[in-house]
Design goal:
By secondary structure, this protein is α+β, with helices and mostly antiparallel strands. It is built from 16 helices and eleven strands. A hairpin with a 6-residue loop joins strand 3 and strand 4. Helix 2 packs across helix 13 and helix 13 packs antiparallel against helix 14. It is elongated, with a radius of gyration of 33 Å. It starts with 19 loop residues before the first helix and ends with a helix.
Length: 408
């Protein structure tokens, strides 16, 4: 007797898999609900993270302003190749080199010009407050521009008169009346080393950590303040290469004929050398980097205390989840959700305060400090890492806990 064939049972249709973003949207935001339950603690956490971000923005911003301000003149040089002394450290403490090295270079094929640049510091008397301050004095050729500063190049003919100078209107200090008189074409006189000088024009550059501002004049006016220094002792040699010449080949020729007392390099290499001096040789770069690390540690401790307290208060709820079969990964995500929310909420006020802080520093210290996209992204990433690491540390007790021990 044959059995009737089995009827095929219809399989239930497969449940369509929901997209990740939809599943995340439908999920109950337990982390956010736990945070806003205690609003006082939430505000403390946001304030602590914002303060840590403010400190990191301040350290990184001032450090960048240090490097930028001390390389303003270097980056503004209108030259393809820079000649400096072998004893050169930075522009504020530069040794001199013989000018005859430039005469040797100018005879090379491919070299368009080789002009000297004189740089030193002078103490001048503020014509408005009569107080003395230190400025960078630059003596440049009036035949060919030494800088890529349109305001300076447009007024070079004014420097042909004795004891005339171009004054940096962004000089640190109280110079409102001086700038106003110069803009109106009025004569502004003051003293440098008990010698009367005249401000013939203005330009925009900015102060640095080394000096409060910059004065630009002709080589002849420059040397009047340094009688012991002859015209044959120059600070830098500015070499321009002919348009149809290969800069690398010309640089190789220059290096081949220069004696050991002079060094030739590209402009970018020279600027990098100047910045490396302030970053590596002086303790300033180390100090600001250490300050950033300390701000990161402070923020980590604050967030850890907040999240650790929150985990301890909700240990019973977490134990219930574990008894119901939820894995540690689910519980960890709740705490990490809190950490990410805290990072976002704390970063916003920290960024706002940092922007105000940068404006105050720029106005008070005349430093080129401003928010950059790279710094904003760096501090945000550090904030997320800071809060994430705190969340991981805060969940260590939760991951090792047994529900039976918690309820006992």
């Amino acid at each position: 007797m044959t059995r009737p064939p089995k009827q095929a049972t219809a399989k239930p249709p497969a449940r369509p898999k929901r997209p990740f973003w939809q599943a995340l949207q439908d999920r109950t935001p337990l982390g956010w609900l736990q945070l806003k339950k205690n609003r006082g603690r939430l505000l403390v956490a946001v304030a602590g993270i914002g303060f840590a971000d403010l400190l990191m923005f301040a350290q990184l911003g001032i450090q960048a302003a240090l490097f930028d301000s001390n390389t303003l003149l270097n980056r503004g040089l209108d030259a393809d190749i820079i000649i400096r002394s072998a004893q050169y450290r930075d522009l504020s403490l530069a040794n001199t080199l013989p000018r005859r090295r430039l005469y040797q270079i100018q005879s090379l094929q491919g070299v368009q010009s080789a002009e000297p640049l004189y740089v030193s510091r002078v103490v001048w008397k503020n014509p408005q407050t009569r107080r003395k301050t230190e400025l960078t004095l630059v003596g440049q050729s009036l035949e060919r521009p030494a800088f890529n500063f349109p305001d300076v190049n447009r007024q070079l003919n004014l420097l042909k008169q004795p004891d005339t100078f171009l004054f940096d209107r962004l000089t640190r200090g109280d110079y409102g009346d001086v700038v106003q008189q110069a803009e109106q074409g009025q004569s502004v006189t003051t003293e440098i080393d008990r010698r009367s000088v005249k401000v013939a024009g203005l330009f925009d550059l900015g102060a640095s950590f080394a000096t409060d501002g910059t004065l630009i004049t002709s080589p002849e006016n420059f040397l009047r303040f340094f009688p012991e220094r002859g015209a044959g002792q120059v600070t830098l040699g500015l070499v321009k290469v002919k348009p149809d010449a290969d800069s690398a080949a010309v640089l190789a020729q220059i290096k081949a004929i220069l004696p050991p007392d002079a060094i030739a390099s590209t402009k970018q290499t020279y600027v990098d050398l100047e910045q490396a001096y302030w970053q590596e040789t002086t303790p300033i770069g180390i100090v600001f980097t250490f300050g950033t690390v300390m701000a990161f540690v402070v923020g980590t401790v604050i967030v850890f205390q907040i999240l650790s307290t929150d985990v301890n208060e909700h240990m019973g709820e977490y134990a219930t989840f574990k008894a119901m079969g939820y894995r540690d990964r689910y519980l960890l995500w709740i705490v990490m959700e809190e950490a990410i929310i805290l990072a976002a909420l704390g970063f916003i006020p920290g960024l706002g305060l940092a922007l105000g802080q940068y404006a105050l520093i720029h106005n008070a210290a005349a430093l080129p400090i401003a928010m950059t996209a790279s710094r904003l992204l760096l501090v945000f990433c550090l904030t997320v890492i800071m809060c994430g690491a705190s969340g991981l540390i805060a969940t260590r007790r939760l991951q090792s806990a047994d529900p039976a021990d918690i309820f006992s």
